[in-house]
Write a structure and sequence with these properties.
alpha+beta, 6-stranded antiparallel beta sheet, 4-stranded antiparallel beta sheet, 18% helix, 25% strand, binds 2-oxoglutaric acid
Length: 257
């Protein structure tokens, strides 16, 4: 890796490998993120849609909405992912996480437990579109937990299907990932994380962006019937997954910080 053109220092790359997360970094300006948040609420997860995938309308909207795809493809995010996972990156999933005041807890979990990837290789970005603090339930995470797979209890078919018991977590080793609109952090599919009940009067909107590499086989039917990957960077040099193009552009400029 040529450090003169890298966004990440070698110390930051080492931090990611040691701790399973990295950030925050900025993907887009604060005011642009705030404007996009309203667009997402009104037109993506709140608007009319023919999208009937699971967890519709919050899940995998990069497949049918260019604005969502552009968020997933923000160079600040993809460049950093590429410095950790290489030049060929595959976008296979995305989820909006909108918590209105009073919105429910997301329990401690590791993302890998129900993901149809073989082998299990994924890097996620959690991008804040609202200001995210402890009060409105920022993501909490356990540094270093990505080195283990924890036992879990099944909790159903929601966006999170398994809960890891709090007994496995040292409360003194929990990081609260507070973010300004437009900021994101990166994390591994094995990192233990959760979020609290939203005890504030402020909404909390974020987007999780899930990215793998071409040698990982995705069981598309387990994501949903008709699911496809989108090549985010480089090319799909294996070619054994189904892919589609990104939705047609509506903006002339890529998002930048
Ligand atoms: O935003 C949340 O509350 C949970 C996020 C999460 O579990 C994830 O992005 O994997």
């Amino acid at each position: 890796m040529n450090d003169t053109t890298s966004l990440l220092t070698s110390a930051e790359r080492q931090f990611f490998w040691d701790h399973g997360f990295l950030g925050p970094f900025r993907a887009l300006p604060d005011d642009a993120a705030t404007e996009i948040a309203e667009d997402v609420i009104e037109n993506v997860i709140g608007g009319e849609t023919e999208w009937t995938g699971p967890h519709s309308p919050s899940h995998c909207r990069h497949l049918d909405n260019r604005m969502v795809y552009d968020l997933c493809a923000a160079p600040s995010i993809v460049d950093r992912m590429s410095e950790l996972y290489g030049p060929h990156l595959i976008l296979w999933r995305s989820n909006f996480w909108c918590k209105e005041p009073g919105g429910a807890e997301v329990p401690w979990h590791q993302d890998l437990i129900n993901w149809p990837l073989e082998p299990m290789v994924n890097i996620s970005a959690w991008l804040a579109l609202d200001r995210v603090t402890k009060e409105n339930s920022c993501v909490q995470l356990v540094p270093g937990s990505h080195k283990y797979v924890f036992p879990f209890e099944s909790i159903g078919e929601g966006p999170v299907t398994g809960r890891v018991d709090e007994a496995h977590i040292d409360p003194d080793n929990v990081v609260h990932m507070e973010l300004e609109p437009g900021e994101f952090f990166l994390f591994s599919e094995k990192l233990l994380h959760r979020s609290n009940v939203n005890r504030s009067q402020r909404r909390r909107l974020g987007l999780s962006i899930r990215v793998t590499v071409p040698f990982v086989k995705v069981d598309h039917d387990q994501v949903f019937g008709g699911h496809r990957n989108v090549v985010l960077r480089g090319h799909d040099y294996m070619g054994f997954n189904a892919t589609q193009d990104a939705p047609a552009p509506v903006w002339s400029e890529p998002l930048s910080a």
